[in-house]
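Quality-control log, excerpt.
Job 1 of 2 completed; input and output follow.
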Amino acid sequence: MSYFLETINQMTQTEFVSALGTIFEETPSIAEQAWHQRPFRSVEGLWQAMVDIVKADSAAAQLALIKAHPDLGSRASMADASVQEQAGAGLSQMSERNYDRFQQLNDAYKQKFGFPFVMAVKGYQVEDILQAFEDRLDNDEDRERTRSLFEIFQIARFRLEDCIN
């Protein structure tokens, strides 16, 4: 559903969380906290408020947010926004060979880091994502946690831009 920023600013907390609780994967508490910072002057301001909430969170809460994301290229059940984002990058129409490669990379990544590979896939193709996967497997855990949060922030920006006029 699409909203005007003025409408978002006038919503009750329950309405706000219902509208924006999925901006960050399976973490409506971010929208619950952001509601208190209304009114927002821009979508950018709303996005930054939500990002600041995540940045101020504990390392454990940040890790839980990262772990809330589905495996890229997975055929498992996931949030509607994730399904649309992955389909837009061609991940829902992959060849069996690419699907198998994604599963191998997902497994290797989770084994090394303990959380799923997260990437804002909008604007990328399967080959680009596979290359990023392979490149990021060389990182250490701290760098990947930081990179994963950066990617989550980009995903949130895209989702906000899609739902607010």
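Job 2 of 2 completed; input and output follow.
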Amino acid sequence: MGLMLHLGYGQEEEVVLWTPTGKLEWSDFKGKPSNISNAAAITASGITYSFSAKGTKDRMELDFKVDTHFYPDKSWYKTKLANPIILSHEQLHFDISEVYARNFRQILAKTKFTNNAKSEVKEIYRNILRELNDYQNQYDSETNFSRDTVQQLIWNKKIKKALNN
């Protein structure tokens, strides 16, 4: 029903890695529901990266790793409102994060980096997160947080197609 993007480098907290076959269960949502939010559930997911670079100052080769994570302790649901439709809506938030992680990987693979690679990667990352955030908001608004069943089905198809490409 909602989304929280999480930027984390020090990963001491529990994370669930996105996989093609893995699906979220309500038991993965371990956070305490907010009394002030009217959302039925919140999915906290995000993209993390690490890389190493080698080469000359004009041409750096990057070895990078990009992951999509779900954060159980920052994700929650209200038991009374929980149903399979809302759970699949939340799953799609996680899947959308993976779509953008793949975009990020593609851009990193194509970009020519210099010895300023660290800030160049950070800039690309910031742009990806901004686009991801806008897209997640568009998803919630077009599906009316899963209430618009027709739009929800359209989004399900659209994201499934993006993940299969």
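Post-run check on job 2. The chain has a mean pLDDT of 92.
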